[in-house]
Amino acid sequence: MKQELKLSDWLPTTNKEVKIRGWDALDVILFSGDAYVDHPSFGPAVIGRILESYGLRVAIVPQPNVNDNLQDFVKMGAPKLFFGVTGGCMDPMISNYTASKKKRDKDAYTPNGDTGFRPDYATTVYSNILKEKWPDVPILIGGIEASLRRVTHYDYWSDKLMPTILESSKADMLVYGMGEQPLREVVRLLQKGVPFKNINTVLQTAILLDNEEDIPKNSNWEDVEIVSHEKCLQDKKAYASNFKTIEQESNKLAARRIFQKVGTKTLMINPPYPTMTEDEIDASFDLPYTRLPHPKYNKRGPIPAYEMIKFSINIHRGCFGGCSFCTISAHQGKFIASRSQESVLREVDTVANMPDFKGYLSDIGGPSANMYKMKGKVQAICDKCVAPSCISPVICSNLDTSHKPLTELYRAVDSHPKIKKSFIGSGIRHDMLVPEFNKNADPKELDDYTEEVMTKHISGRLKVAPEHTSDPVLKLMRKPSFSYFHKFKERFDKINIKKGLNLQLIPYFISNHPACEAEDMANLAAETKDMGFQLEQVQGFTPTPMTVATVIYYSGYHPYTLKKVNTPKTQKEKDEQHRFFFWYKNENKDWIRKTLNKLGRQDLLNVLLPENDKWRKNKPSGEAKHTFDDAIPFNQRKNKAKFRSKKKR
């Protein structure tokens, strides 16, 4: 029987809670844009628990008020070592605004989904206030916002190029990516007595140097200089050229140190740490989380993001897909860090014994559900690799894509006496389950995994993400040809019939992506209709820092080829691309006819709007709701079913 929790089981958030622990001072105080949920899926909690495990006295100030007398920034005094600042689990601009730049009416990381508790550009806002109040205390920033804005980047919401967030925030150090490894070294040096300002060669950190300062020496590193921030402001092509270096060095096992001039200063980004070992990632997940929101929120309502993952299990980090529109590999890396089966099962047991657990795990997954335990067969080949993706344009022959460890893990989880069913809520890379694409894999093993998922781990719907039907767009996205989705659907249908199931396949698609023309969207609509899909809810491309697609959106150039790429940018272009998704709505039909006739694509018109269109006749009663969901960033869509499959009549 689990012991009843005490207030002191959470990291302290007030002076009263600090005193309950018997502390008279703090070593680190964290400021976060999210409400405090003490759970391994919430970055601020992970960092707090990691620092605590190093023997530090840590407190957290969640969602400090920036609209009053700023007492939240002074109430706990000054820490002995440093302030830690993060905007939260998502970039605050994505938390606060839709792709249409409209204010959101819900914040998933705030009790009751309330808005107004997180400022725009939260990391910069918090850090500037702390610098003003405590000018002599070092500030270390990290998390998604800091990580993806560590170098000159395009900010979609202000529609301008911004310098490294170290410049705007005035912070002393930036930790990018997953923070456990660099923080361990920073703390080790501080505890050894090294002044914070002298800590400048820790892997996976970035700092701004004054031009008169000496460049820290490290004989093990090679250096590379990218185009200055000022040159980027003047020349979009030069800005685009930077990204190839940034992305490649972020994903190399032996990366170079990156320098960039920013005004009278120099940005120095140290190489990343090697991928976390199994023991290291297990240790992070095995920390003493309560797995619950702080009791201070008990009367404020549920926290939506927590409710979504409350009974889910994260089994790995990283993604080797390298999709052009996705930020996962930029933050978590392309190499997979997998937990041991024993660690996963320990967490399953913890969840199974929670008082309100009913026997159903909502997800056993990660950034992509089916990359667990996958890595290079010959490490020496990976050591030299600079490719941003291991599966585009083809699956690397050195990549071990065996699904057997994952299938065995699912079965081990399901053998727990309190587990009635474990679901796969994360997106599955369907292309890796197609033998024609995954040529080095055992076809039987792939079918075994697909069958395991279909028969035991979904409830009516399997979500996959072909993203588009146009090969040129898919190539730019770093996604495989749509022909592989057809082949996957054949296997899906075959298992459906064989097992007497009645499952639906739910594909995700993106509109307005760089290189996508109106004709491409018309073809997408026609091909998916021909396959029996009627799209009801769609995803619009949202430019976020640190992706190839965003660089193209702003600059007009592909960073790897420096060739021009067109991107739909006006609201008119975006709206028109969306209309093709909803070919079955009466208000779109005349426009579609005129547009396709103008394009000379009567072939597509005959598919979408034939003379005797049975789709309207056979539609269930009630009009399909036209909802363009631009609310969910691409790497956080796993529990949103967006389309309804319908059998061809």
Automatic annotation (TrEMBL):
Instruction: List the InterPro entries hit by this protein, alphabetically.
Output: Elp3/MiaA/NifB-like_rSAM, Methylthiotransferase_CS, rSAM, rSAM_horseshoe, rSAM_sf, UPF0313, UPF0313_C, UPF0313_N
Cofactor(s) it depends on:
[4Fe-4S] cluster
By its UniProt entry, which PROSITE patterns does this protein fall under?
MTTASE_RADICAL, RADICAL_SAM
Q: Which residue positions does the secretion signal occupy?
A: none
For whether the record's keyword set contains Cytoplasm, the answer is: no
Entry binding sites for [4Fe-4S] cluster: C319, C323, C326
Q: Does the keyword Nuclease feature in the UniProt annotation?
A: no
Q: Which residues form the Radical SAM core domain?
A: 305-585
Kindly name one Pfam family recorded for this protein: Radical_SAM_N
Q: How is the cofactor bound?
A: Binds 1 [4Fe-4S] cluster. The cluster is coordinated with 3 cysteines and an exchangeable S-adenosyl-L-methionine.
SMART domains, per the entry: Elp3 (SM00729)
SUPFAM superfamilies associated with the record:
Radical SAM enzymes
**Which family is this sequence assigned to?**
Belongs to the UPF0313 family.
Protein name per its UniProtKB record: YgiQ family radical SAM protein
Taxonomic source organism = Mariniflexile gromovii
